[in-house]
Design a protein that fits this description.
The protein is α/β, with parallel strands linked by helices. The protein is built from 14 helices and 12 strands. It has 2 domains: 136 residues, Aspartate Aminotransferase, domain 1, CATH 3.90.1150; 227 residues, Aspartate Aminotransferase, domain 2 (3-Layer(aba) Sandwich), CATH 3.40.640.10. The relative contact order is 0.17. Bound molecules: pyridoxal-5'-phosphate (PLP). Pyridoxal-5'-phosphate binds next to helix 5. The site of pyridoxal-5'-phosphate has 14 residues, from helix 5.
Length: 389
């Protein structure tokens, strides 16, 4: 038998982290103590109150049957109440909220609902790869919007050609941003809303890091801007905020027609989210928020260790106000890949090469805050000694 991949899979862009993955495995096999700052996956456990809630409700047979695809009413209400408390944004839990099997699931599926073959998605570069992949799977094309440091890593909407604007059906944005750690302000979201209205483009804002912030400037929701709900939705997740990446729970909120379109795909490809996990998700949103404060304080300390260490080592690094990432230019004369390989060989530290997130990420590298402070201290000591600069 001749098994042939469908062209949508065969056409997938090359996996740009393959080289660093190989080098990492090889170094481990040589017995080198690797400090892996490549992965954006929280290292600490899910908060106790959430785990206990799952233990309490998991035995209840009412939760053992097929869930509804849009999510339990009580879960959608908890999401709506959280939006109101956190952002002052009102959403109707009946029509403007849908549960997701992690926000990645919704981001991957949204294009199937709104992109026809030949349509365009506007996609940030560098960016989370799923925006582009979801577009490709739907038969669409991505127009990459470079995120440049001189623009605060915000896309320059004026630079998008007129014919592209006409064919675009979706614009993906993501703030606080992975991988650049940039934050967006109200003026940016206002520009996005008027651009989307003018060209009839659905805004999909990925807000996975809205709660991973430092200091008292809390990131805003795109939906806080007047008119936002007419043009788009926001993706959200418990993954990064409550150390719940393994649980697969997230949601989308906003424009009811867009939510219904996404729901239509979901009714046909999945059967929703284990309801006991949704109940635990309510506990996350409505229970004691103390552990989240502590978590932010831990990340902030880690950030300070890493940023100070890198600066001392001679890197030009800006202290991020949010996210789990430090994004910084690699030494001049080096490519991202060369730098990351050198860092691994000389210091045993894994960084992610910026070009893995798209060509505009070339010249940068990303380190994560997902290891204990002691390991980060060790990492910066090794980087200083290695004399990479
Ligand atoms: C981690 C991450 C997500 C997805 O998280 P889920 O676990 O699928 O909810 C979405 N967007 C970005 C930018 C991320 O970094």
């Amino acid at each position: 038998m001749n098994i042939k991949l469908a062209s949508r899979v065969a056409q997938l862009p090359p996996y740009l982290f393959a080289e660093i993955d190989r080098a990492k495995t090889a170094a481990r096999e040589r017995g080198i103590d690797i400090i892996d700052l490549g992965i954006g996956d929280p290292d600490m456990p899910t908060f106790d109150n959430i785990v206990r809630k799952l233990q309490e409700v998991a035995p209840n047979p009412v939760y053992h049957r097929y869930p509804s695809y849009q999510g339990l009413k009580v879960f959608r209400e908890a999401v709506a109440n959280w939006y109101d408390r956190r952002f002052g944004v009102k959403v109707d839990p009946a029509t403007e909220v849908v549960s997701l099997i992690g926000s990645k699931e919704g981001i991957a599926h949204i294009s199937l609902a709104f992109i026809d073959p030949g349509d365009i998605s506007l996609v940030p570069d560098p960016g989370y790869p799923v925006y582009n992949i979801g577009t490709l799977f739907a038969g669409g094309r991505s127009y990459f919007m470079p995120l440049k440091e001189e623009n605060g890593f915000l896309p320059d909407l004026d630079a998008i050609p007129e014919d592209v604007r006409q064919k675009a059906k979706i614009i993906f944005i993501n703030y606080p941003n992975n991988p650049t750690a940039a934050c967006a302000d109200r003026a940016f979201y206002e520009r996005i809303v008027s651009f989307a209205k003018k060209y009839n483009i659905i805004v999909c804002h990925d807000a996975a890091y809205s709660e991973v912030y430092f200091g008292d400037k809390r990131p805003m929701s795109f939906l806080e801007v007047p008119g936002a709900k007419e043009v788009g939705i926001e993706f959200h997740s418990l993954s990064k905020t409550y150390n719940m990446t393994g649980w697969r729970i997230g949601w989308a909120v906003g424009n009811p027609e867009v939510i219904a379109g996404l729901g239509k795909i979901k009714t046909n490809v999945d059967s929703g989210l284990f309801e006991a996990i949704q109940i635990a998700g309510i506990e996350a949103l409505e229970g004691d928020q103390g552990p989240q404060e502590e978590l932010r304080a831990i990340y902030q300390k880690r950030r300070d260790v890493l940023v100070k260490g890198l600066s001392d080592a001679g890197f030009k690094v800006r202290s991020p106000e949010a996210t789990l990432y430090v994004w910084f230019p690699v030494p001049s004369g080096m490519t991202s890949a060369h730098f990351c390989k050198t860092l691994l060989d000389k210091a045993g530290v894994v960084a992610t090469p910026g070009n893995g997130f798209g060509p505009a990420g070339e010249g940068y590298a990303r380190l994560t805050l997902c290891l204990p402070e002691e390991r980060l201290k060790e990492a910066v000591e090794r980087i200083k000694k290695a004399g990479v600069i």
